[in-house]
Amino acid sequence: MDKKKIGVALASIVVACWVLLPILWMLSLSLQSEPEIHSVPPTIIPNNPVYFNYWFIFDASSAIEARLQESGRLSFLPAVARWFPNALMNSVIIGLITVVINVFAATLASYVYTRVRFPGSSVLFYMSIAGRLIPPVAIVVPYYIIIQNFFGLKLYDTLAAVILVHAAFTLPLNIWILNTYLTTIPTDIEDAARVDGYGRFETLFKVVLPVIKPGIVAVGIIAFMISWGEFFFAFMVTQTQLSRTMPVIVGFMAAQPYKPVGILMAGGVVAMLPALVIIAIFRRYLISGLVAGAVK
Amino acid sequence: MLKEDIKFIVLALIPSLLFILPFTFYPIGYAIYVSTQKYDLKYPEEIRFIGFDNFIQVINSYYFADSVMATAIFAAISVPLAVAISLGLALLLSQKFRGVGFLQWLVLIPWAIPLVVSSAVWKWIFDANYGIFNAILKAVGLIDSYVPWLTLRWPAMLILVLAFLWVQLPLSTLLFLAGIQSIPQELYEAALIDGARSWSRFKSITFTWLKPFMLIVAVYTTLMALWTFDIVYVITAGGPGNFTAVISYYTFSEMFTFLNFGRASALSFMVVLVSIGLIIAYFRALRIGRLRLRA
Fold this sequence. Notes:
The complex is a heterodimer of chains A (296) and B (295). With 296 residues, chain A is mainly alpha-helical. Chain A has 15 helices and no strands. In chain A, helix 3 (52-58) crosses helix 4 (60-71) and helix 13 packs antiparallel against helix 14. Chain B has 295 residues and is an all-alpha fold. Chain B has a two-stranded antiparallel ribbon. In chain B, helix 8 (153-181) packs across helix 10.
């Protein structure tokens, strides 16, 4: 038994290193000045950490002014960083709404596909998930056209457009996941509930939901994280900086003729924080022994 | 069929279909249409039907063979690794030990970092002059002088795989973890009573139960590997030579550099065909006849 404990401990350490080393390196780079970043051998722990990179992404104009007064000259800085705080907020809003849509629509849809027999159900199901087989590059133009006129709504360059695209992007995967999850859940208790006179909706919300909570939480996390990191479509359906999302602004910061590594890394560190809080909140519901308990 | 059931089906399907259908049929139809047209935005007046010419042009292009090779190598290394490692991770994270909650949280972190940033971090780790990897190797005494890893073929490819795994593992691990949560504990208890050893318990219960989840992970990771663009663009830009220039790298340049939408769509369709072939292979390999729709 102790052998197993040691194995688990060792594996945990390896996993922690694998995840943390690149992140610590990112953190370290974000606290270095550009000359320090471009020094040989590399500085592993900055001796006198500089906070300019963080200052810059949160308040670009005042950071630039301070730098000018201090040294009288500027190295190349990506002015687009001015939009970073706003983009971060946009991403949180878009991500959370995408989660709500996914949890709601994917649960309902996958429950219908797994529990109700009706003609055409498998065709609808396969159609729902098949759209994801085509590489994004090939379908970005039609997405763009749909967004210009979605059932009469002009959504181009709005947060709603990004939400819509992200929902369309994440739902097929999440319906498939929840479908797989639901097929593993025995239907005995639901049947019993139906016999007791529960309607379909009642059965779903009162009996099934508590049992499939880990699956729904996983789907919620997946929806948030895919939306949080998505660059390509968010870039294509927005135009003004006001409606840009975090990955797009960070992408712009990286796409400069001279790449400001420190600022990019600071952006990465800050970008990671809201998502970490949200995963921490969701994650506690992920593990639960409800399945076994409820069937007994 | 009960009237109540019909009402339920319609009400419950509307929310998802409202989002999915407009973004499925029209895009697929459009992509098929464009792939059969001479659709080069540099010559918008010449847009016309040309049948399979785009496909033939793409297959005969200078980049086709090499990019198929690069994509195949990349996917063949990264997909099996992603599936195996994430399954192992999920098994570890479903044990009960102190700090497992923290570890579950930790494993999801790479997901939260924008892809351009995490790619840039990997690039900087392996940078010839300023990278920490060379500095450590030299400090330990394994190398005498700095090695330009990203200009060497196989090291460059493996660095791409590392960066890919780092961002892909959270999703697959989470999926397996949710799958493991749904395994009824009675099965293990029964197996224990029958005296099954831990390996056969794993094989006959955990593995069998997780098969449909494994299918999702394999399909999703394969699609992601075949579509990989950002990582390659940031870390190696296709080099050295064009050893790591994957298909999507050329799809992007056909589309956004040469504005040849027809050829970009044709390339995408070949990727779709390969994906479908692989998905069928996965069904066979996992002995799943078809997706189970019902419990």
